[in-house]
Amino acid sequence: MTEYINLVIAGTVQGLVIALAALAISLSFAVARFPNAATGDTMTVGAYVAVLVQAATAGSLLAGSIAAIIVTTLVSVACYFLVFKKLERRPLVASLIASIGIAFFLRSMLTFFLGFEQHVFQIPISRALNFSGIRIIPIDLWLSGIAILVLAATFVLLFLTPLGRRMRAVAADMDLARASGIRSGRVMIALWAISGVLSAVAGIMVGIKTVVTPDLGWDLLLPAFAAAILGGIGSPGGAVLAAILLGVAQEVSTPFVGFTYKIALSFVALIAVLIVRPAGLFGQPERVR
Amino acid sequence: MTLELRNISKRLGGMLVLDGLSFSAGLDELTGIIGPNGAGKSTLFAVISGFQGGDTGSTRFDGETLDGLRPEQRVGKGLARTFQVPRPFTHLTVRENLAVGAQDQAGEKLVDLFVRPWRVRAQDKAIFERADATIDFLGLGPVAHKPAGQISGGQRKLLELGRALMSEPRYILLDEPFAGVNPVLIEQISERIVEAKARGVGFLIVEHDLSALSRLVSRLLVMDRGRLIADGAPGQVLDDRTVQEAYMGGVVS
User: What is residue A204's predicted lDDT score, i.e. its pLDDT?
Assistant: First the structure.
């Protein structure tokens, strides 16, 4: 029993990481109207910047994280201006394909300049707290706390600020938003900046939990996509809940399907949802609209 | 102080929907536009509000050209519009729908939220005070906190007018404000329009309900096949033979 509780805890941490990426994808789908496939590789960029800056600044994870957030935000907003803005009036597929292209481009740049070598965050080794068999690693507590904080901040921004109100308006009806005088360009810049921040935090978390490689973000893209669809496309709250569910389900399935195949669970969940309940687990398909 | 259209043409799918249309309307007046279906009224509104570009011609608003401006920029100039089928932001409350319509929001930029949160807060408070005033003005109090997707069709019409008013416009293009609205509400909407006019907001109104419209406006324009075929006081225009022929012909066909 305690073994399962440990798996649930590990799954929750993993789920929170997926939730950050899934939220970025869900927001891009709701507001910009396409799921951003470059989310994963933007995470990778964030992880690399953080790990390299940490190494250069004598081990300051804070400096690394701030640098990572700045860089991914710039990358994300630059992608908007250079690519997505130009494709705004085209069908969804054009932007989706372009975002896949950006994903490959970012990864190629990383491998070209930094190679395939693994990088590791310098994290002080700490002993797991042991509550009669239920083990909690302090770093997991920290990571979960930060992830929850970032997720909460995003929802506060979305539902309690004038900017969030405008984002939801653009998500709901672009023409009506324009007729209301909303300058959609500013809303889009905010969207991509938020997406950049979420990606950086997710990337750093994955990097700390595992190692930093060029495939770090791409490997997480599928579960994040699965969560965004599972939660009901364009529903940010649903995406976060689904991501945590998926994270827990993946870990708990490990004793049955083995470590290598737990990732397949995302595929199964994705296909099952698309067949059985295309609208997602939570509510209607056009929840945000 | 006029909205001035000069030689506006627009071709859609091989059809000449607007055919060299020219007129000017006073910004402090109530002007109506009628015409059979397919006369080009909706396209005219789309061109004036910037949702579609005209193929030829130019639009001036109080002496300033609007050509090349995007819809949201025209709203910024004081030119608002409503839609024929009101489609509020269904998951936002009525109050939030109105707040979205307010202009010059400090909270529009992400950095402002962090750099000047107090200003964003103060302005948001002012916006919601105006939204509440608009709710009172339109009698939407009972549904103010409901998601706009749950209110009735008539209430949506009022909300649509309110959203346009929230941008503090000088002129509003109203697209069929009375369509599908019961007589009591038509009266109520007309009163609100007259009252808004008294506060200095002008209206250009496309409407099929001729009796309600002619009671409201001081000038009536009649369109047929993308052209203006009559222009004058409502009583006089409706007695015109060419108008009656075009209109009846249009309705029958």
Answer: 96
Taking residue A217's Cβ as centre, other Cβ atoms within 10 Å add up to 30
Contact flag B72-A178 (C-beta cutoff 8 Å): yes
Domain identity same for B220 and B169: yes
Out of B111, B127, B150, pick the residue that ends a domain: B150
pLDDT in tens, A110-163: 999 998 889 999 888 778 888 888 888 888 999 999 999 999 999 999 998 889
Strands B15-26 and B2-12: antiparallel
- At the top level of CATH, the class of A2-117+134-276 is mainly alpha
Closest to B164 measured CA to CA, from B79, B84, B66 = B79
Q: Test A169 with B120 for CB contact under 8 angstroms.
A: no
Range of the domain at B171: 2-88+152-252
Same domain, B163 and B225: yes
Q: What are phi and psi of B5, to 5 degrees?
A: -110, 130
Domain count, chain B: 2
Q: How far is B244 from chain A (nearest CA, A)?
A: 34
E-only strand ranges, A106-152: 129-131, 134-136
For chain A, say whether B161 makes contact (Cβ under 8 Å): no
Residues B108 and B136 in one domain: yes
Closest to B24 (Cα-Cα) out of B1, B44, B53:
B1
What interface predicted TM-score (ipTM) does this complex get?
0.84
pLDDT number for residue A270: 76
Contact A217, A42 (CB under 8 A): yes
Residues of B in contact with A177 (CB under 8 A): 72, 100
Inspect the interface and report whether the beta carbons of B100 and A165 lie closer than 8 Å: yes
Q: Does residue B171 sit in the same domain as residue B246?
A: yes
Per-position DSSP letters for A72-103, written without gaps between them: HHHHHHHHHHHTGGGGTTS-HHHHHHHHHHHH
Q: pTM score, two decimals? A: 0.86
Asked if the Cβ–Cβ distance from B108 to A186 is below 8 Å, we say: yes
Nearest Cα neighbor of B169 from A167, A180, A169 is A180
Q: Residue A288 has what pLDDT?
A: 45
- Examine the domain organization and report whether B191 and B246 are in the same domain: yes
Task: Give the alpha-carbon dihedral of B196, B198, B199, B204, to 10 degrees.
Answer: 50
